[in-house]
Amino acid sequence: MKAFIYGQKWSLKYDVYIKQLFNKLSSSGIEYKVFKNFNDQIQSSNVRHDTLSTHEELRAYRPDVVITLGGDGTILSAMTMIRELELPIMGLNLGRLGFLASIEQERIDEAIEMYLEGRFTISKRSMLQIASNPEIFGDINYALNDFTILKRDNSSMIVLHTYIDGDFLNSYWADGLIVSTPTGSTGYSLSCGGPIMFPSSDNFILTPVAPHNLNVRPIVISSNHELSFKIEGRSENFLCTMDSRYEVVTSEHDIKIKKNNFSTHLISLEGDNFMTTLRSKLNWGIDKRN
């Protein structure tokens, strides 16, 4: 069995958990390689591991599982390397909230043992894809969480003319607009008043950011539809994001969003599911007055 360990930033306060993972993998007879940029940061040990640094190297290695060390942002970053390989991801949470990286650091040994025993399920998370003229985001033109168009700096609000399958929906006068997947419904969209959706939902969520018209509300549509946008504003440039990546666009860009042709596969340990994650992360069902 082979594993690929992916992290973004090494920190001394998490070093004990990183060592614990390496030791557990070795003692369990699991071969592994580490993301080179992450491995180069590790300062607490002279031990150096076999590394990978590109999508092509990962495809050639073809691990059985990708283990991420960090938070949700680490999983989003790992997806830019995994791409269409659809490798199952085990997210070990060294961050804060962690809706995607939901396995807490204290459960590292337990998580590896449960994986080896087959006591887990794989959740397939739909993604969105962008097509733009002129082109933006190159080959990594997909997102697991969301796509946004936003005003830049302190400029005035922008106007986003929005179409569904070519039919006019609305002109959003706002600071921006979020197109979210069900997975991204607990992210930026939620903070702007969007609904929480179960990951198995096959939908997009359109959530305006600080809309000028108070009767404008988030909308849920099937991901079988194609969305398109034209941007207007007093500024010449606008900000466009795909998860944690961004590009600067202008009113000359024609932008279209549709469902991506591959998905992200996330590992959930036996006994864990989206409802338990919601309750634990959002403190639902807890009355602190008692």
How would you describe this protein?
The protein is of the alpha/beta class and 290 residues long. It folds into two domains: 144 residues, 3-Layer(aba) Sandwich (Rossmann fold); 132 residues, Probable inorganic polyphosphate/atp-NAD kinase, domain 2 (Tumour Suppressor Smad4, Sandwich), CATH 2.60.200. The protein has seven helices and 20 strands. Strands 1, 2, 3, 4, 5, 6, 7 and 20 form an eight-stranded mixed β-sheet that branches. The relative contact order is 0.15. The mean pLDDT is 93.
Which descriptors apply to this entry?
alpha/beta; Tumour Suppressor Smad4; globular; Rossmann fold
Helix content: 10-25%
The level-1 CATH class of the largest domain: Alpha Beta
Count of DSSP-assigned helices: 7
N-end to C-end Cα span: 48 Å
